[in-house]
Structures are given as C-alpha cells and as structure tokens.
Amino acid sequence: MNNQKWNIDQTHSSIEFKIKHMMITNIKGNFTDYQGEMTMNEGDFESAALSFTAAVASINTKNADRDKHLLSADFFDAEQYPTIAFSSTKVTKKSGNDYTITGELTMHGATKTVNLDTEFGGAMKDPWGNTKLALNVIGKINRKDWNLNWNSALETGGVLVSEEVKLEADLQFILA
After folding, report:
1. Number of folded domains in the chain?
2. Contacts of 95 (CB under 8 A, 6+ apart)
C-alpha cells in the first residue's frame, strides 16, 4: 500500500471549542491560525498518523476583551506557551465510519492523552482534480488538566467558567 501525505485545507476546515459561561450558556470560539497533516496507507484510516498545531494568539471568541483575557497568564499565557499541539498515537475503528483517535494534547506546558471521537467522511476528487478527505472530530477535556485554573465564584453559587471544554473540528485534508 502507498503511504500518503495529506495537509489540512484551511479554507474548508474549522477548529472550534465551547465552554459553559455562568453555568447557563455556552461561549464558542475558534482558532484561525493552525496547521496539520496526516499520513496513512492508502485506503486504511486506522494506519493514520495525525499532527496539528494552533497559534494560541489566533483565538477568537468574538469578544476582544475576553480574547485578551484568554491570552493572559490567567488562562493560556500565550507569551510563554504560544502553541497548542496534538499528535495521534493510535486510530481505532469503532464501527462503520466511526473511529477513536487517541493522542497527546499539549497546551499551557502540559501534555495529556485524549480520545477524540471521529467520523471519517471518506475521500473524493474535487472539480479541480484534487483528492480531498474529510473528518469530523469531537471530544471533551477538563481545562484544569492543563493547568488552566482561573475562575470566579458567582454570588448565586457556581462559577463563571466551566471546567469542561467541548471540542469540535471539521477537517478537510488535501492529498499532497
């Protein structure tokens, strides 16, 4: 089998997260500056090895003051830890087009193993002759596992920012 290299097509991809705010609503955000690649044996997604990096400074929650706070030492400390990185260690088929990608997520100076549910959308040629491949990746992490501990207690009980962060990435790759 051929070992193929794929690069993220940023024009057709998104890297997003959401987190509970004041325990009643979700705040959504994304990263706008990222790179990623994947290698795999042709037609064998379980052989895939994926890597990804995002520039922390590219965080966007549609609120400049909140983004500035997220970049500060209270949260990501972007000056000291400018990137978030992921490197897969294993891809396991669950059933049909559903897989689990296991890998190492590094941010804020800590590396932890995460499992990400992934739907393999398949591969096909676009109208310009490029071979594309699509993945939908979802997962949950506890931000405190990466030393992102800042919070504020609410007068009515609870906290301002949830510990659980939901991740979702719609990724389209192009055969290099």
Report:
1. 1
2. none
